[in-house]
């Protein structure tokens, strides 16, 4: 080797070493910076796995629509929200300390990224000024997505932007996510195959429910609480598995990706979630549009994966699962469109001096005539406010109730019930349902009495006073738009959306507060729910059918934190979306970072599509926000690298 050759090699090695050193400096704050990635790994990998029994107080007792015991139990969400809040607190402290001690080295966030901070601000203000702020600060049953967690989502974005600066940080997050997903999908696949671990004594001891009967009647839920939330998780994990399988050349890791992908397919099949298939379908379209170059580079693997997807699609069709999914999307669980003319009972309203019943296109009015001397009550009624005036109802002594003289109203009778020191109570029996009412002894004001199903609880209501058997409640028709004729759309979401949309005009600036949707949804439409139950829809006027959430993340944000917060959220996401489109449409995917960036982008698209029919939930949402934050950090890094390259090229020229 001559002297000149040796000198050239030294120069090359020195240049490469300098380049690597420069990359490390630009990538982060040294090896210790990966310590800051640990909370993100905990949110994306550990939080979705937390399942633990907890008894808690709902604090719902003061509401007319709540008749159950205030003390309820939770397995999936209570301890998870504690864990998530703790992680967010640690992240907040770490970020504040970093900003204080190293403010000059912190990169300036893009202007549009501040939109998510505005979203967090309106979430906080909506909670502070809400009548239901207790639940916003402390969490509510089946939800526990408090204002601290909503604000924490914005924190995650800034945290990722400041601290994810190295490929090693990306790998920590990605591989943590993959490891956790294998466990979640394995539990879900076992449920689909009829081997639910929640029925095993060892697992029940593990989660603290040993000796307590679990009543979970869902096809697949794993640790994610609900099949609907599986679609969120699938939308986030499937693109990751797909692209890593294409990009990664390690055979062992590829086999793990395939195993995880197969488990995802089983869970997706078992959930029969229409929104999951729609979300993944949207992701496939975006994948073809943005990553065709990557597919072209890996033709053999691409054709293999396409073949697997084709076989899975054929299996869905042959098994009849596809038709079930389509039916749920278009029709819900019954015949789809509702013919309201089939319901004789159309409305019940309580007026100051009587009860008005709309039945078979007639307006019937009932009022009570107490006879304290005889210890009973009599009843008068009127049909369509006729000129004949009121009529006395006919007492059938052997049955102890009163009937109307018209034959067309033979399905109706009125029966006196409890007479205590404060109220007279009576039942208007219509077809197969008892409707309870009470009249004040002193003011003669009429009230609807919301009562439980006494036959279920084996209760004799006459052994109690009036106020102890139920709660005074409003009753009537709630505003219903868009889906009035098809409330069963997307498995009854039409019913919920149609009643939610009229509420939104009241929440332009501030919302009603996190975890408070149940307080504003019109629970008083008891007649409507009763009629739906007659055609096989799973609605009833009992406590089991509380509507806790709107089943649409966008409606949820508007109702709970206000329209302005929804606009801020959408401005933020659309900024990320169009930034990603600009980057990845021309990307060649020659490094790990760009591949993970497009994974985050496509996963976020799938999530946002699934969110059209599902709510934000702590079962999955922290995973989404970590992936979204990771995507924003990667986009910033790619843009910086391209800008530096353009600058270097300009200097050469």
Description:
Helix content is 52%, strand content 12%. A hairpin with a 4-residue loop joins strand 8 (394-396) and strand 9 (401-403). The protein has a seven-stranded antiparallel sheet. The protein has a five-stranded antiparallel sheet with strand order 3-4-5-6-7. The chain has a two-stranded antiparallel ribbon with strand order 1-2. It has helices at 3-27, 38-46, 78-101, 115-128, 133-138, 147-163, 167-192, 201-206, 227-247, 251-271, 274-290, 292-297, 299-319, 321-330, 454-457, 466-469, 489-500, 517-520, 526-534, 553-561, 563-584, 592-610, 621-652; strands at 54-57, 71-74, 345-350, 355-359, 362-371, 376-383, 391-392, 394-396, 401-403, 412-419, 423-430, 433-440, 446-450, 471-473. The protein is elongated. The protein is of the alpha+beta class and 653 residues long. 41% of the residues are buried. The chain folds into two domains: 32-331 and 553-652, no CATH class; 340-473, no CATH class.
């Amino acid at each position: 080797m001559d002297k000149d050759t040796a000198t050239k090699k030294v120069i090359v090695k020195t240049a490469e070493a300098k380049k690597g050193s420069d990359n490390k400096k630009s990538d982060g704050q040294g090896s210790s910076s990966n310590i800051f990635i640990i909370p993100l790994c905990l949110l994306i990998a550990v939080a979705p796995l937390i399942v633990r029994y907890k008894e808690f107080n709902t604090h719902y007792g003061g509401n007319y629509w709540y008749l159950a015991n205030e003390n309820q139990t939770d397995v999936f969400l209570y301890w998870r929200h504690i864990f998530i809040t703790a992680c967010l607190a640690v992240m907040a402290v770490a970020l504040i300390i970093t900003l204080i001690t190293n403010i000059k080295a912190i990169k300036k966030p893009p202007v549009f990224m501040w939109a998510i901070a505005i979203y967090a601000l309106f979430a906080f203000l909506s909670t502070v000024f809400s009548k239901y702020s207790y639940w916003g600060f402390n969490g509510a049953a089946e939800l526990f997505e408090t204002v601290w967690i909503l604000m924490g989502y914005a924190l995650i974005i800034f945290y990722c932007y400041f601290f994810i600066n190295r490929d090693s940080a990306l790998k920590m997050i990605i591989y943590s996510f993959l490891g956790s997903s294998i466990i979640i999908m394995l539990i879900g696949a076992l449920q689909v195959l009829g081997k639910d671990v929640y029925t095993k004594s060892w697992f029940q001891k593990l989660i603290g429910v040993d000796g307590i009967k679990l009543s979970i009647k869902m096809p697949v839920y794993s640790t994610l609480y609900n099949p609907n939330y599986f679609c969120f998780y699938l939308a986030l994990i499937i693109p990751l598995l797909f692209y890593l399988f294409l990009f990664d050349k390690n055979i062992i890791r590829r086999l793990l990706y395939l195993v995880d992908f197969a488990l995802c397919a089983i869970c997706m099949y078992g959930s029969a979630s229409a929104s999951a298939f729609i979300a993944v379908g949207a992701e496939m379209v975006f994948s073809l549009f943005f990553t065709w170059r990557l597919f072209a580079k890996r033709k053999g693997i691409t054709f293999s994966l396409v073949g697997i997807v084709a076989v899975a699609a054929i299996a869905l069709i042959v098994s009849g699962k596809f038709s079930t999914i389509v039916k749920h999307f278009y029709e819900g669980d019954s015949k789809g469109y509702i013919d309201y003319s089939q319901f004789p009972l159309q409305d019940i309203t309580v007026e100051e001096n009587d009860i008005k019943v709309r039945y078979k296109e007639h307006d019937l009015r009932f009022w009570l005539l107490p006879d304290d001397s005889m210890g009973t009550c009599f009843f008068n009624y009127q049909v369509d406010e006729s000129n004949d005036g009121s009529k006395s109802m006919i007492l059938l002594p052997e049955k102890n109730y009163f009937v109307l003289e018209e034959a067309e109203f033979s399905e109706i009778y009125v029966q006196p019930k409890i007479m205590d020191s404060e109220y007279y109570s009576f039942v208007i029996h219509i077809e197969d349902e008892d409707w309870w009412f009470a009249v004040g002894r002193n003011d003669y004001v009429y009230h609807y009495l919301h009562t439980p199903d006494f036959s279920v609880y084996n209760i004799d209501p006459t052994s109690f006073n009036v106020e102890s058997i139920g709660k005074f409640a409003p009753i009537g028709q709630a505003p219903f738009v868009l889906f009035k004729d098809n409330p069963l759309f997307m498995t009854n979401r039409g019913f919920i959306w149609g009643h939610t949309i009229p509420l939104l005009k009241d929440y332009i600036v501030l919302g009603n507060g996190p975890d408070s949707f149940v307080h504003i949804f019109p629970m008083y439409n008891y007649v409507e729910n009763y009629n739906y139950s007659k055609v096989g829809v799973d609605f009833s006027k009992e406590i089991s059918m509380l509507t806790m959430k709107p089943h649409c993340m966008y409606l949820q944000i508007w109702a709970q934190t206000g329209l302005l917060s929804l606009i801020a959220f959408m401005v933020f996401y659309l900024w990320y979306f169009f930034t990603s489109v600009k980057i990845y449409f021309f990307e060649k995917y020659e490094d790990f970072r760009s591949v993970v960036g497009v994974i985050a982008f496509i996963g976020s698209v799938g999530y946002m599509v699934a969110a059209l029919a599902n709510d934000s939930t702590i079962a999955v949402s922290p995973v989404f926000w970590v992936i979204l934050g990771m995507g924003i950090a990667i986009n910033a890094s790619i843009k910086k690298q391209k800008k530096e390259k353009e600058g270097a090229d300009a200097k050469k020229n």
